[in-house]
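### Sample
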Amino acid sequence: MSVSQTKKYHCVVKRLPSSTRVFVLYLRYPSLYFNSEKVFRVKPVLDEHVTLIKDLAQSIEVDFWTPESAEQVTAGINVDIRVPAMYLDLVYTMLQQSEMEHEVLIEDVQGAVDGQADTRPSPRAHSYTKYNTWSVIESWINSIASSSANLVSTQSIGRTYEGRTMTLLKLGKKTSSQKPAIFLDCGIHAREWISPAFCQWFVNEALTTYGSDAQMTSLLDQMDVFVLPLFNVDGYHYTHTSNRMWRKTRSRNSGSSCVGTDPNRNFDAGWCTVGASRNPCSETYCGASPESEIEVKNVANFIRQNKSVIKAYLTIHSYSQLLLFPYSYTYNLSAHHNELMSIAEGASSALRSLYGTRYTSGPGAATIYLAAGGSDDWSYDLGVKYSFTFELRDTGRYGFLLPESQIKPTCEETMLAVKYIAAHVQKNLY
């Protein structure tokens, strides 16, 4: 997405002791503002409506929240789009003339961005109920590894495009022999902040309940859990410093001024055949080739090297409240469809038991839309039978801008679903 918003500067004005009578201005970093922007939910029911939305996306800058691109718009699905202020009149006119059903989900995007943080002052220290910056997460990883050395070890699986370390946590009781494992990653898409918040929550929950919670104790005694707290580190850092709505990686694309690739279109699973774009400026750009993104290659290499022990792959996204499994790149059902559907429905039921949050379960293509190059399809085709994608809260009220006040309930309920899946995997090793 090219960005039309004006760059501004965050400023801190600090008064020195009264004797000096000087003001010091600290320029921090340029940050995009989304003043007067809105998020619409439009509901195309006719082919003409679909064509209208696709034409609109060609002519003006709109940011697709769900589905992830104009190409995936079909009749009968809800389409959530963020519209810059300068195009609001045009969009309102188009919607009225077409008589397409619509509503405004977010009246003021900048207000929602500002409202994500709760009213307490934001601590520099790590918090499980805040959206922590990458530097804070990095310090937390080091702290966890040293304070829980009996259950945690870390390893670098490589560096990102911009040179940041991708650190993997291995949770489990230390044994002399290799144990079967579950792989969990968060933050493939940079703007989905609730996702890395969950990975941090999971690690803390695992370590603090080991020894008291029978299921967690059994899990970590008998299996290991590999946790990648943040997959798209560069993109996530960019959402905290420059553009809250950034989705892709931060790699440069040859022959284009547009930056980044969608890492969840870059895996070698039906790569770039459906639901992905070959345009580097698209939010669903599949990259120059499968695993062209170093972050994707690093993760794929690790899973390939450990595929004999990795029995489940769980990847956390937002939003829409979905629990998906292969396939997304084809409508064909997977070989283990019935078992995966049963697990997904059971996990969704466990999740719902806490706060009543309703999830929809099913294979990606049939449940939402075709999308090739996803990590869950790739891991499944590699031989990791229990491959699942979570789309966490909510269903559009806040979208990617879920307030920090919802981190705790979201993570608590998601833990129940993850533990349900883990228990099934533990009892059905293959």
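The longest strand covers residues 23-32. This sample (Carboxypeptidase B) is used throughout the tutorial notebook.
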